[in-house]
Every structure is written in C-alpha cells, then in structure tokens.
Amino acid sequence: MGRYDYDFFVLGAGSGGVRASRIAAAYGAKTAVVEERYLGGTCVNVGCIPKKLLVYASEFRDHFEDAAGFGWTVGERTVDWKRLIGNKDKEINRLNGIYRNLLEGAGAAIIEGTAHLVDDHTIDVDGQRYTAAYILVATGSWPTFPQTPGIEYALTSNEAFYLDALPKRVIIVGGGYIAVEFATIFHGLGSAVTELYWGELFLRGFDTDVRQVLADEMRKRGVNLRFQADVSRIEKTPHGIKATLNDKSELEADIIMYATGRLPNSKKLGLDAAGVETDEIGAVCVDAYSRTNIPHIYAVGDVTNRLNLTPMAIAEGHAVAETLFNNNPTRPDHMNVATAVFSHPNIGTVGLTEEEARQEYDAIDIYKSSFRALKHTLSGRDEKTFMKIIVDPESDRVIGCHMTGPEAGEIIQGLAVAIKCNATKAQFDATIGIHPTSAEEFVTMRQKAA
C-alpha cells in the first residue's frame, strides 16, 4: 500500500462514510474522507435528526389538547417558527462538530471539496489529486423532481428545514415516509395540509392494515389526504402557488413540497472512469460485502439503494472496515431490519408484511388488536392504536410485527430483537406484559384474526 497516498479514501462523510473512516483509521489504516456539503450527511443535517426534532415540536399540539381531560388549563399558544428552527440549527451545528471530532480523533483526514474518480485508484478533489489502495463510495442520495410544468416553484424536504416562516397552507406531493411525516409535522404546527398521492393508498411496501389505520387517523386530525391525485401544473401567484391537479381541480397554498423519491447521488463521481458498474437509476452495484465489480472499490448506504436507512449504512460501513483492515470479512445483515415512520401517530414495523408473508409461506396466522389507549379514556381523543403479529404456523416463529400508535418505533425496537432471535408465538405468549402499557398487547394477543 506504500505506493498510494492513502490506504483508504472515502467519498462522503455521511453515516456510512464516517463509520467506515473511523473504524478503518482506528485499525491503523491511513484514511481520508472527502465531503462537499456537511459532516453527518443527510441524516444529521436534512434528515432523521432535524426531522425528529420537528416531530417533537409538532406533537405538542396533541399534548395541549389532551391536557384538559387531566385537569390542566392551557392558555393561548403560538408557534415561534424562527426560534424552533434556530434551536434546531444549533443542535445540528453541535452534531457537525462531534462528527469532526470523531473523525479527527480517530486519525482520519477530512478533506473539504467536490470529488470525482479519475481512475480506479485516483481521486480528484477540486483539482488536487490523491491516490488510494481502497476507495469507498458513500455519497448517499438526493431528492428528485418529476418533469411537471412549474416544478421550479416547488421545494423538497431539504429546503423545508430552512423556511423563513411557517407556511399557513401546505401542499405535499408524495406517498412515502418523508411525505407522510412532513404532512403531520406541518399540520401539528398549525398549517392547513393537503397531501397528494397518485396511488390508492400511501406508504407502499408497508403492511396494508397499518397504512389504512394511519390514513384514517390522519384524516381524523384534519389532514386532507387525496389519493389517486397528482399535479399537472404549478403556477406562481401573488399569494403563493396554485397547483392544478389531474382532475382539473385547483389548490392554492403558500408552498408545495415534493417528496416523490430520491436517487443515488452518483452521477458526477466519475464512476465510469474507474469502471464501476451502476444500475439503471445510478445505484452502485455491490455484492454481499459491499464490494463493486472493481475489487478494491466498495460502496455503502443510499448510493447502493439497498435498505436506505441510517443504521443500515452505519452497519455496512463498519463491515467494510472490518473486512479490509481487521482481517475479519463481514457481511451486513439486511434481514429483519426494523424501521419507523414518525407520523402522527407513529408506525413501527419489523419483519414481513402480511402481503409478503402470504407470498413466502403456504399458510400464516394473523393476530390483530385495535384499541383506545388508556390515556385517551380521559383525554377524549378519538385515536386507535393498532397492532399486528404474523406467525409461521409450521415453526410457530413470529415473522412480522407491525404497529400504528404512539411510540411505535420505541416499542418495535424491542420486538426486533425477539424476531432476530427467531422467537416463537409461544414465547411471546409466555412473556408477562408490563401493565398498564400499550406494548403489553403484543404478548397478550391470543385470538387469530379471521
């Protein structure tokens, strides 16, 4: 490796790139990581972390409304958007500093600039060239827009985190988790929200029961969900924007936000010059060890379009460092990865959906429960919590757990451990619940769904 400037050169200081860089450097590899925007990538700056902070802010609307049933009198309330965003920015800046300290503390060099590959061992960063024995591509993904007339007046979630003021009227286009989460964030903070999705029901890929329950609950709260609807034209008006839909109806709002997909951030990396293969959408093709068709070039995270989740990118990055610099070939495990949608209410899920399970197994057992949480017996809120367990009857193994309700992500995390350990329904049944909690319902469901 002595003939190269670095043992390990990482393109992108997001979750996967930072973890790989830190671990590799800790194992003694001479490591550099290049970043053109911000340390921490999408998750820290315009993704998971700031989004969850806005989710917390938006939940106070429910808390204030629920307080009366418990004897509290809550007076007039308003949202100071500038203070919220300012406090969010302070936290993000703090995390940026932590990421810098972690990299520098591990001995990794941080290079700020825009990088592309010149060949399979050479990286150009704003005119300065470096060589490396191993290269890791960890440049993430980026929001995309459809070719809709007037699309230049739309924004994405990236810009939503930096709005100057809280919009009174919001149109959100999309049916994935980003669209759903921002619909409930803006609604919770007081905006009038319309969410448009071209399909029959949003959150494609999640369990159908869970998707339907969330749609029902969002409508109860006052979010205007319009399915099988899309925008045909966007126009700028003196008071905001006007969207003309495919049914010729019109909507007016202060902003229109698109959350219709993200593509791997790979186009300007010079992958062709290095001979690295990508698929039709630009995702870097990798094997089970995150290795590309060029044996000394690897890729992790959203740029590979496998499981586009921050913890998965971290696991993939760690595995690459273990494989290359600790003589410990490691394959990241993409099976039974839990995830959550931080909507109002939350969704938490791990394992197979009912639709997936029916395709994979000859027979399955389904257990469902829908109930009003204890809190709402006094708050008066008309909200249902929904839980679902999917079981392989032949082995009695639990192969899926799904929930819509408060703290679903927190609850499903523990169940993910059980499913990872191949827990059976009998073991769920033998577990004594914590009373009174919603979570105990997962160990008390006995009646199979029809």
Tally of DSSP helical segments: 13
The named CATH superfamily of the largest domain: FAD/NAD(P)-binding domain
Question: Which overall shape is indicated by the principal axes computed on the Cα atoms?
Answer: globular
As residue ranges, the low-confidence spans are: none
Termini Cα gap? 63 Å
Radius of gyration: 24 Å
Strand percentage lies at 15-25%
Q: How would you classify the helix and strand content by structural class?
A: alpha/beta
What fraction, in percent, of the residue positions are helical? 25-40%
Regarding CATH, which class of the largest domain?
Alpha Beta
Total domain modules: 3
CATH architecture of the largest domain: 3-Layer(bba) Sandwich
CATH topology of the largest domain: FAD/NAD(P)-binding domain
Task: Describe, in plain words, how this protein is organized in 3D.
- The protein has 450 residues and is α/β, with parallel strands linked by helices.
- It is 32% helix and 24% strand.
- The chain has helices at 15-26, 41-46, 48-67, 81-106, 157-160, 177-188, 208-221, 271-274, 310-325, 354-360, 376-379, 408-420, 425-430; strands at residues 6-11, 31-35, 109-112, 115-119, 122-125, 128-137, 141-143, 169-173, 192-197, 224-227, 231-237, 240-245, 250-253, 255-258, 262-264, 297-299, 339-341, 347-351, 365-371, 385-392, 397-404.
- The strands form five sheets. Strands 1, 2, 3, 4, 5, 6 and 16 form a seven-stranded mixed sheet that branches. The chain has a five-stranded antiparallel sheet with strand order 17-18-21-20-19, with helices on both faces. It has a four-stranded parallel sheet with strand order 10-9-8-14, covered by helices on one side.
- Helix 1 (15-26) packs parallel to helix 9, helix 3 packs antiparallel against helix 4 and helix 3 crosses helix 6.
- The longest helix has 26 residues, at 81-106.
- The radius of gyration is 24 Å and the shape is globular.
- The termini are far apart.
- The model has no long low-confidence stretch (mean pLDDT 97).
